[in-house]
Design goal:
heterodimer, A: alpha/beta, five-stranded mixed beta sheet, globular, B: four-stranded mixed beta sheet, about 55% helix
């Protein structure tokens, strides 16, 4: 795409934003940035922010407490960055800042100039005094395109985004021809980040050519996967990048109206998006005659009511039209007949957020990131048994090994890696043989998994693959809209079979039926939900058949997670006479005192919650976990004296 | 239904009726209308659904069909202290179901129910979005991370203690007066 010079209108907006931004940034007093996305708030960031404000007032210190979004470092929430130029130190990243820590830092760092090395993670920039966080693999192995500004800008201040280069791409796009933009996106090789990986350029091209007006754009932020929260974080942390991407898409394809479909369960994301749209309108970056070019475009927010299937395009359209979100047969695809029967582009949040950087830096730049077939980056929410869970953006083609071990710190407590469940309920469960598999749309599909929503659950040797399959099936079975018989009834049968296995009453022939029925469901379902619902079962059957066998034949759970197949007992050799630590921890009073004044567990009463394992002092470590249940030694319960 | 409950319901319905005039009589307004009602009253009373049906001019069965399709909508009023147990993937792996079970045992109700005194209700939710704190439960609006079965008792006890404190305080005031 040819380069352009900023238009006069945009220059004025930019100058205004820069001076407002500089007004805040160039003040000499210290700046305290508190991450206030949902994850931060859940970890107590509001209390932390309040503690800073109180402590500053109490000590009569001048400092600004600023709100930013989420940088993806969930393990470190609440995250605070303190920029205190007078102290001579660079901006410093502090993890896990409790209100108490906030008061302490106010006194010792802001007032007395001691940054408290034991509490900081590192400096945010290279310098000679403090190691920079960029030397950590959690930071430097990431490649941020979509989440580049998340955690750096105030999501409710459009000036922050504009001053840091935002809306430059929209201005550039508006000075180009729509077909130039469509070809740029096509040449970049951008593929839909919603999971299926359909080429975005191809979608845009169809709608660009359609003469049927009006046309619509829907930004799909209906993130229903339990355990993936990147779309929410992007909207909460930097909504303007999405708004800008939408405006560019609309201009390129002749759309005048767009809808952002956000889950109502994400109240902060809904509010942030509404505020962003309003601010963009005030700056004439949305609305009538945008930047004086004659192009008009508006965005509305629609709150989705929580149905996983509405992530599917045609179901989402039904939902906006006030109906039950049931998918319909495609073709015709929404690009031909979508919302109200008109041509409609439905793009994921991350797809749209990738657009401004592509327009700014060009298709060739984007193609250089990632792999030839899947250019660009992927955002994952890595959760489960890892040291540093959180949101991670990596170039496509990085391996699971890099993602799990190098970036997220591997498995805690020296446990072994067992499996990675990638792509949520539609994805697959991959064994350690796949650690060197590159993460991109095609390699994952070859392994039987899929990119899906970008949820990644890491499982250690203490997790049970069968149980996780059961969990996802339980989810998809509930979320099935009920239209296709195979999906409605088949998933229910799969779930029943898996439940029987986790309870130790599974039968050997169930394993065959599981496989057969899974394949039938894939063939007999209309939409992505049904087609992919059996993926967790099929992949785990393929890579962890021994675990299924153990459940069915030996009634043993190798991860010791399935409660019906596991039991706890107290090793009388290790148990300390007279110690009562476990007794109070038991929610069902299952622990009794033996005749030798040691402890035993009444297997009838035990609910296998594992509290006694935590309660038992480490020097005794007497509570043992076994599977199958028959391995539990019998410990006589003394007859009650009453 | 007691007379008082009837009056309360009538009041709710009247207020819904007046709110409805802010919405166009179109099918696409259906979900926003239901969301408005739930936001105001925390649940959808069955009588309200017929009001909505006549406003949008579709059969009540269609309204019911849409309302039951989506997870967001509730048909029973929640307790004063709603307990929400996260059963997202990370919480599941770290034993979220054990936490849910402990709340159920402690409060003697099942998930989706409200205690007889309308104090507590239990709901399961899919991912609150603080997976690093798993397992997580919400009591009211407060998020409690790294939950353990032994914490369940403490949380509920705290509310009961506060309630008892308020009751005694009130009694004292009454005596003084």
């Amino acid at each position: 795409m040819r380069d352009t010079v900023p238009s006069e209108q945009f220059k004025t907006i930019l100058a205004g934003a820069k001076s407002q931004y500089a007004h805040v940034m160039q003040k000499p007093e210290p700046k305290i940035y508190v991450g206030l996305a949902t994850c931060g708030i859940a970890s107590g960031a509001l209390e932390t922010k309040q503690a800073f404000e109180e402590a500053l007032a109490e000590r009569q210190l001048e400092a600004q407490v600023l709100t930013v979004g989420c940088g993806g470092h969930c393990y470190a929430e609440p995250v605070v960055i303190i920029d205190h130029p007078d102290s001579g130190f660079p901006p410093i990243f502090y993890p896990n800042v409790s209100p108490g820590k906030a008061k302490m830092l106010t006194k010792l760092f802001l007032e007395e100039g001691d940054p408290r090395f034991e509490h900081l993670l590192g400096a945010t920039v290279e310098n000679e005094l403090i190691p920079s966080v960029m030397t950590f693999s959690r930071f430097n192995l990431e490649e941020r395109v979509i989440t580049a500004l998340c955690g750096q800008v105030d999501p409710e201040q459009i000036v922050d985004y504009i001053a840091l280069g935002g809306y430059r791409s929209l201005d550039k796009a508006l000075q180009s021809r729509p077909d130039e933009i469509v070809s740029e996106i096509r040449d970049s090789g951008l593929r839909g980040r919603g999971g299926a990986g359909f080429p975005t350029g191809a979608k845009w091209e169809i709608v660009h050519r359609a003469n049927n007006r009006p046309k619509y754009l829907i930004c799909n932020a209906d993130e229903g996967d339990p355990g993936a929260y990147m779309d929410r974080t992007i909207i909460e942390s930097n909504p303007h990048q999405v708004v800008e991407g939408m405006a560019i898409c609309a201009y390129a394809t002749g759309i005048e109206k767009a809808i952002v479909y956000v889950r109502a369960e994400y109240p902060l994301a809904v509010r942030t998006m509404q505020k962003a749209i309003q601010e963009a309108k005030q700056q004439n970056l949305l609305g009538e005659d945008i930047l004086g070019t004659g192009f008009s475009f508006s965005i509305e927010v629609f709150q989705g009511s929580g149905a996983f299937v509405c992530g599917e395009e045609s179901a989402l359209v039904q939902s906006i039209q006030g109906k039950r979100g049931m998918p319909r047969h495609r073709p015709p695809f929404p690009v031909e007949k979508g919302l109200w029967g008109q041509p409609t582009i439905i793009n994921n949040v991350k797809t749209l957020a990738s657009v401004p950087p592509i327009i700014d830096k060009g298709a060739a730049w984007f193609k250089n990131i990632g792999t030839a077939e899947s250019p660009g980056t992927a955002v994952f929410s890595v959760v489960g048994d890892v040291v540093h869970p959180g949101l991670v953006e990596i170039p496509m083609g990085a391996t699971l090994q890099t993602l799990i071990f190098d970036i997220c710190g591997g498995i805690p407590n020296q446990k072994k890696f067992k499996a990675a469940q990638i792509g949520g309920p539609s994805g697959g469960c991959l064994s350690k043989d796949f650690l060197d598999t590159p993460i991109d749309f095609d390699s994952l599909a070859d392994a039987g998994a899929m990119m899906g929503s970008g949820g990644l659950v890491v499982m250690s040797e203490d997790s049970c693959v069968v149980d996780v399959s059961r969990y996802f099936l339980d989810f998809t079975q509930k979320e099935s809209c009920g239209k296709c018989t195979f999906c409605r009834i088949g998933t229910n049968h799969l779930l029943k079979m898996l439940e029987r296995m986790t309870k130790g009453v599974g039968q050997l022939e169930d394993l065959q039926i599981l496989k057969r029925l899974s394949q039938d469901i894939q063939l007999g379902s209309l939409c992505g939900l049904g087609k992919t619902a059996p993926n967790p079962v099929l992949t785990s059957l393929q890579y962890f058949e021994n675990e299924y066998q153990a459940h069915v034949v030996e009634k043993r759970c190798p991860g010791m997670t399935c409660r019906e197949l596991t039991a706890f007992y107290i090793d009388l050799e290790k148990c300390a006479r007279g110690c009562d630590a476990c007794v109070g921890s038991c929610p069902t009073d299952a622990i009794f005192t033996t005749s030798t004044r040691k402890k035993g567990i009444d297997q009838q009463l035990c609910v296998k919650c594992g509290e006694c394992v935590v309660a038992c002092p480490p020097e005794y470590d007497a509570v043992e976990r076994v599977s199958p249940v028959s391995k539990v030694p019998i410990i006589e319960k003394p007859k009650s004296k009453l | 239904m007691t007379d008082q409950a009837k009056d309360e319901l009538q009041e709710i319905l009247n207020s819904i009726q007046s709110e409805l005039s802010n919405f166009q009589k179109e099918r696409s307004e259906l979900i926003p209308i239901l969301q408005m009602i739930q936001e105001k009253f925390q649940y959808l009373p069955p009588e309200a659904l017929s009001l909505v049906a006549s406003h949008v001019d579709i059969p009540p069965a269609d309204v019911y069909g849409v309302a039951t399709f989506y997870n967001q909508f509730r048909f029973h009023p929640p307790g004063k202290h709603p307990v929400k147990v996260c059963l997202g993937t990370a919480c599941h792996v770290k034993g979220g179901d054990i936490i849910l079970e402990n709340f159920e045992r402690k409060l003697e109700i099942s998930e989706g129910e409200t205690t007889a005194d309308k104090e507590f209700s239990i709901e399961r939710v899919a991912c609150v979005g603080c997976c690093a704190l798993a397992p997580v439960a919400l009591l009211g609006e407060t998020v409690h991370g790294n939950m353990a079965p032994s914490k369940v008792e403490g949380l509920i006890l705290r509310i009961e203690v506060e309630k008892e404190k308020a009751r005694r305080e009130k009694e004292k005031q009454n005596q003084n007066a």
